[in-house]
Specification:
About 85% of the residues lie in helices and about 0% in strands. With about 90 residues, the protein is mostly helical. The chain is elongated, with a radius of gyration of 21 Å.
Length: about 90
């Protein structure tokens, strides 16, 4: 006997089947992941260095701004990465 989840997934696949990704697309998606992981790490290192300097000075306002900047950078890079990955998935 199938669970309601399994039945729902079967119905979903009948109405909107999941597109299969090719090996080329998988490779491109992996490259995008790798590239953006490196970009995020680079930005984090730069901001964390600045955070350390601000902490040593006791400049808590700058620290808060840098933390917000770090979160903002990460979100924008993640969004950019997902946009590029979606283009690859759609074959554009």
């Amino acid at each position: 006997m199938k669970s309601s989840y399994e039945l729902a997934m079967e119905r979903l696949n009948k109405t909107a089947p999941t597109p299969k990704t090719t090996d080329k697309q998988k490779k491109e998606l992996a490259e995008i992941d790798s590239k953006y992981a490196a970009k995020i790490a680079e930005r984090e290192l730069l901001v964390k260095d600045e955070l350390k300097k601000a902490a040593e000075k006791g400049d808590y306002e700058t620290m808060a701004q840098l933390e917000k900047q770090l979160v903002s950078n990460r979100k924008s890079l993640e969004a950019e990465k997902e946009e590029k990955k979606e283009k690859v998935r759609q074959g554009k």
